[in-house]
UniProtKB/TrEMBL annotation, chain A:
Pfam assignment, any one: BPD_transp_2
Domain of life according to the entry: Bacteria
Protein name: Branched-chain amino acid transport system permease protein
Transmembrane segments: 12-35, 65-84, 96-115, 142-165, 186-213, 225-249, 261-283
Coiled-coil stretches: none
InterPro entries: ABC_transp_permease (IPR001851), BCAA_transport_permease (IPR052157)
Keyword Ion transport found: no
Family (UniProt): Belongs to the binding-protein-dependent transport system permease family. LivHM subfamily.
Subcellular locations according to the entry: Cell membrane
Membrane topology: Multi-pass membrane protein
Keywords from the named record: Amino-acid transport, Cell membrane, Membrane, Transmembrane, Transmembrane helix, Transport
Chief location of this protein within or outside the cell: membrane
């Protein structure tokens, strides 16, 4: 039982990390109806920027987190203005090709600028762990989880209580109606993309001291996060959060009692099962296609 | 104007083919992007350094060597494409492919193209089984295979007398799975039991689950067969979780210097074909020129890239004719003094038997415990 509880704790912590990436991806899909295949590479960009700030520029971990998230969000906004803005409705396939291309440019651009060797980020919390009533909690990971929780709470606040957040939700619900009541699509969509991508950057930065930082680190996490937003229902933010925690815990428990090889398959098996039972995902709002 | 353009183009073309004819091209298929890109980069650096030294010393009977590198992403499909691209440039031989799975995939292609494949890094025993009298006469390997390394490691762990149970963790490739089979075989009848085996997908960032299981099971040692960033990630998390089991296996300690200097891997042992610390004049000279050229210490991959080119150059100098077939014959007769102090001589499976090192972390530095034949 103790072993099981430890696995669940590990799984919840892993799930929060997935959530931070998945929510950004889901937000962009909700507003723009583009599946951002470059999302994992923005996560990598955030980690790379943090690594450079902390190891080369000597900036502290927490200021570095904020700078990295802002910088990645800015890159995201530029990508929106230059490329994504020109999409019309129904150009779903072009969006896929374009964002895959953006991802390749990011990955190889970082490899060109920083080299493909992996970097280690050490902070005062590295290799510190807490014993919480007999259970093992890694400090650096716990900080990433807290950063994720704060960011998600902030996003919830913005979407629920501010005019701009309400405009984003209105835009996601019905584009034409939002347009008619005077919501400017370019501003709203641009902001949503910037926020979504900044969240990916923040996730990367928060996890840089936990995982090894290298240009290819975005790809494996991207596919898992895709499975998560499909399970949660495309475009649904609560769905992305619930599905992330679900996948995190399931992976951890399955891996703990059987083998690690099965662990990776779990997300996708779960995706198939959920799609069979709920074709629009757990929190999906009807079929879009 | 039109004629002049054509004439200029023809001249350029003629000049280009003249250069191509003068140089002897050696292909290199290695990962230059992806999770083990840093290792591929090192292999390329080592090979380039050897080529530079050989060319400065007059080349191969007056002709210059040239390395042509192609990215294989440590992926068998991409590996085949990379070798097919390399073959367009008429290489006398191809080196590679760093990863065992890729090497096994490109072996038949090199056999069909009738050009030697020089394996220097990949350690899967399957490569030896299939080479030479095993069927593929064009594949040569200068580094010890995992069977050779596992025997050396098994003997050492047995002599330690404190290890009774081992948890195996390896990547889910021919390297990890081959390493598991080789170690199981080597430990038979030695009183050491492999109590669990986990194979993870390459590029996995998170090892919490398997580490939680190991922490609960408390084996005497963990045998790790991982590469590149996966290995670094595993060891960081292993240290973070305060696991007491001894770390062993095929750990590339030379990739982990910052972690070692921090005192994190005290007592960890590993079997490895190369260590920067090797005390031979040839190795000291190699480490020095590598550091000057690239600003980093060489590792196993750069050493093998360096040695592969030197073995090829030695054979090319002895070869009666500068053709792939002539080179193959010369390789079979090779008797080359390795930088390690060992000897490169190919057996009937075209496998050379260089030394294996048992390295250990003692007081924050890597020391060579013993060296043995493979």
């Amino acid at each position: 039982m103790e072993f099981f509880t430890q696995l669940v704790i590990n799984g919840l912590m892993l799930g929060m990390v997935y959530a931070l990436i998945a929510i950004g991806l889901s937000l962009i899909f909700g507003v723009l109806e583009i599946v951002n295949f470059a999302h994992g590479h923005f996560y990598m960009l955030g980690a790379t920027i943090l690594a450079a700030l902390v190891t080369s520029a000597g900036i502290g971990f927490f200021p570095g987190l904020i700078v990295a998230a802002l910088a990645v969000g800015m890159v995201g906004y530029i990508v929106y203005v230059v490329l994504l803005r020109h999409f019309r409705e129904g150009e779903f396939d072009r969006g896929i090709i374009l964002t895959i291309g953006i991802g390749m440019v990011l990955q190889n651009g970082v490899a060109y600028l920083f080299g493909s060797s992996s970097r280690i980020v050490d902070t005062p919390f590295s290799f510190v762990s807490w014993d919480v009533s007999g259970f093992f909690v890694d400090a650096q990971r716990a900080i990433a989880v807290m950063v994720g929780a704060v960011a998600i709470a902030l996003l919830y606040g913005v979407l629920t209580f501010t005019r701009i957040g309400k405009a984003m939700r209105a835009f996601a619900q019905n584009r034409e109606a939002a347009f008619i009541v005077g919501i400017r699509p370019a501003v709203i969509a641009g902001l949503a993309v910037a926020i979504g991508i900044a969240l990916a950057g923040l996730a990367g930065a928060a996890l840089a001291p936990v995982f090894a930082v290298h240009p290819a680190m975005g790809a494996p996490i991207l596919f898992k996060v895709f499975a998560i937003i499909i399970i949660g229902g495309l475009g649904s933010l609560p769905g992305a959060l619930v599905a992330s925690l679900l996948i995190g815990v399931t992976e951890s428990v399955v891996g703990g009692y059987s083998s690690v090889a099965l662990q990776d398959a779990v997300a996708f098996i779960l995706m198939i099962v959920v799609l069979l039972a709920f074709p629009a995902g757990l929190f999906g709002k009807g079929i879009r296609v | 104007m039109f004629r002049m353009t054509i004439a200029a183009t023809m001249m350029l073309f003629a000049a280009h083919s003249a250069v191509a004819q003068d140089k002897i091209v050696i292909g290199l298929s290695t990962p230059l992007t992806g999770s083990v890109a840093a290792l591929g980069q090192h292999e390329n650096w080592g090979a380039s350094l050897a080529v530079e030294e050989i060319n400065d010393a007059g080349g191969i009977n007056g002709r210059q060597l040239h390395i042509e590198a192609q990215d294989n992403q440590c992926n068998p499909t991409q590996g085949i494409t990379s070798v097919e691209n390399l073959l367009q440039n008429d290489p006398i031989a191809v080196m590679g492919a760093l990863c065992s799975s890729v090497t096994l995939a490109v072996m038949p292609i090199m056999e069909r193209a009738e050009r030697p494949l020089m394996v220097g890094v990949a350690t899967s025993p399957l490569i030896t089984e299939q080479a030479g009298v095993g069927g593929n006469d064009w594949t040569f390997r200068i580094n010890p295979s995992d069977s050779g390394l596992a025997v050396a490691l098994g003997n050492y762990l047995t002599e330690m007398n404190t290890i009774k149970t081992i948890a195996f963790v390896g990547e889910d490739t021919d390297y990890g799975r081959g390493g598991h089979n080789a170690l199981t075989e080597a430990l038979k009848g030695k009183g050491i039991e492999i109590v669990s085996a986990d194979f993870y997908k390459q590029g996995t960032p998170d090892f919490t689950t398997v580490l939680t299981r190991i922490k609960a099971a408390k084996p005497d040692a963990v045998a790790l067969y991982a590469t590149g960033v996966d290995e670094l990630g595993f060891i960081r998390q292993y240290r973070g979780m305060n696991i007491e089991s001894l770390l062993s296996g095929r750990v590339s300690l030379d990739e982990l210097l910052p972690v070692i200097q921090a005192g994190a891997l005290e007592g960890a042992t590993s079997v490895y074909p190369y260590a920067v610390q090797l005390d031979t004049p040839e190795n000291k000279a190699f480490v020095e020129s590598f550091k000057t050229a690239y600003g980093e210490l060489p590792n196993y991959q750069s050493f093998q890239g360096y040695e592969s080119v030197r073995v090829l150059a030695d054979a090319l100098k002895r070869s009666k004719e500068l053709t792939p077939a002539g080179l193959k014959q010369a390789l079979k007769e090779a008797d080359f003094a390795s930088v390690t102090g060992g000897n490169i001589k190919f057996d009937d499976h075209n496998q050379a038997h260089n030394l294996a090192l048992i390295v250990k972390v003692k007081d924050g530095v890597i020391v060579i415990e013993t060296m043995s034949g493979t």
